[in-house]
Amino acid sequence: MQIALTEEASGFVARLVASGAFASPEEAVSEALRLLRRDRELDAALADGIRDFEQGRYRDIVAKVAYEPLQFRGIRSSRRRHACDLALRF
Question: Cβ(52)–Cβ(58) under 8 Å?
Answer without folding.
Answer: yes
